[in-house]
Amino acid sequence: MAFSPITHLRHFDIAVPDYQKQIDFYKNHWGLTVMEDDGGVTYFAAEGSPEQYSVRVRKSDEKRLDLVSFGAADRTAVDQLASDLIAKGVQLVGEPDDVKTLGGGYGFRFFDLEGRTIEVSADVATRKHRKVEEREDIPVKLSHVVLNSPEPEKMRAWYEQHLGFRLSDTLNHPQTGDLFYFMRCNAQHHSMAIARGPHASLQHASFELRGIDEYMRGSGRLMRAGFRKIWGPGRHRAGDNTFTYFIDPNGNTMEYTTELDAVDEDTWHPSIFDVREPETSDQWGTGGEMDEFITKEMFNDPDKGLYVAPPV
Description:
Blueprint lengths: L5 E11 L2 H12 L2 E5 L3 E5 L9 E5 L4 E9 L2 H13 L9 E2 L7 E6 L5 E6 L18 E9 L2 H12 L2 E8 L3 E8 L7 E5 L4 E8 L3 H13 L4 E7 L6 E6 L5 E5 L13 E4 L3 H4 L10 H8 L13
Parallel strand pairs: 1-4, 5-8, 9-12, 10-17, 13-16
Antiparallel strand pairs: 1-5, 2-3, 3-4, 6-7, 7-8, 9-13, 10-11, 11-12, 14-15, 15-16
Organism: Arthrobacter sulfonylureivorans
Protein name: VOC family protein
InterPro entries: Fosfomycin_Res_Enzymes (IPR051332), Glyas_Bleomycin-R_OHBP_Dase (IPR029068), Glyas_Fos-R_dOase_dom (IPR004360), VOC_core (IPR037523)
C-alpha cells in the first residue's frame, strides 16, 4: 500500500471460560493493573505504558481471541485506511466512528484474511503512567502478539499489502519452509509475528519488562508461584530479545521479554535464520531445546471467534 497507517500495537483482547482465574493471574501474578472491571469484562494496563489498557479479558463460555488493536496517527489515517480496505474487498465490522471502549477515540474494526477481528484507532485518551523502577519486576508495556496461521505466507502478504507492515526477519527450516515471519509497524523489530500452525489462533502475547534483572526476577517469581513454564529463560536470535514463556489459566501462552531490537528503516535488511541451528531459538543455550511439546503448546486451541465480531 502507498502508506502505512499503523503506528503501534495498543492491546489484545481475549475471551475465556475461567474468567476469575484469568483475572487473578494478570492482577496478582503477571503484574498488570486493573483499570475497569464490571464483573464480566476487565481492562488491564501495564504500569509503564500510556495506553489505557494492554489486555482486556471477557467472560465467555468459549475461549477466543476477541481482537488485536493497533494505533493510527490521526482520524484522517483511520478514514483513509477504511476507504482502502473497502476498495480491496475487506469486510468491515463497522464504519469509522467513536470508540465505545475504555479511553474512547475514533476507529473501526474489520476482519483480517483469516477472520480475526482487528481494530485500528486514533485519538484514544492516554492514561497516567509512571516509570517502572529498578528491580520492579512488572511489565512496562505490551511488546508484541504472535498469530498462528495454516497459511503464513498469505497472512504475511495480506498484512504487508493492507496494513503496511514490513518484514524484519524470517525463521526457516529447509525441508518445511518458512515457519515464522517477524513483522514491524514502527522501529521495534516486531509488534506482530505470524507463525506456521495447524489452525488460526493466538500463539502468544509478550510483555516487556524494564531490563534483564527485572525480567529474570519476574520469570523467577512466576516459576516460584507454580505457573507452568514451557520455555526459557533464554535469548532469541531474531529480535535479540529475551524470553520466558508461561501457560496462563486458560491455556494461552504468555511471555516475559526485554531488550527487543530497534530497527533502522534506512539500513535494515531482513535475515533468514535456520531453526536447525540451536542459537536461532536461544543464543544463551539456557532455555532448553525448542521441541515438539513446546510447539504444540503454542499452537493453542483453534480460535472460535473467526468472522464473528466480539460483543464488546
